[in-house]
Amino acid sequence: xxxxxxxxxxxKPDPTPARAEKRTASRFYQLKxxxxxxxxxxxxxxxxxxxHCWWCDPDNNCGTQQTRDHLFKHCSRWKDQQAQLxxxxxxxxxxGKREWRVGDLLADDRCSPAVLDFLRTTYxxxxxxxVEENWDSDEEEEERAVAAAGVMGEEEEEPGG
Length: 161
Ligand SMILES: [Zn+2]
Known about the structure:
The protein is mainly α and 161 residues long. The longest helix is centred in the middle third of the chain and has 15 residues, at 79-93. It has helices at 15-19, 22-33, 39-44, 68-74, 79-93, 102-107, 112-121, 138-148. Zinc ion is lined by residues 53, 55-57, 64, 66, 70, 75, 77.
């Protein structure tokens, strides 16, 4: 049985992402702050030439902006995962998808476990797959994108350095 929810004092850090594995937690915090690897953010820091969604609109046919709202609610690539996320959120909060703004969702402790599972089962908040020739490799691109998002890698230090 799930423990009952206890109201936490304001300002206390949300314990759920703090306990999550580092990579998922950092995507969570990046999305929360808005400095995440989304189309709109990467375009704003000149990491990508445009902000369309590379998953559901890879050829930029409809110019769908890849916002947080798009990724959590509308992107056809993650439909199943979105359905699970919002079903859980509704169960926890009695508020459905249409009643939430993603910014509020990410700020609500009660929703963090569902959000973290959503991140674990999707690539939301991770770098775009290489689609252009000048993109060297997934990994390098991700590193560059992470650096652009202002989050420096701390977990992969070279041994003996
Ligand atoms: Zn999309």
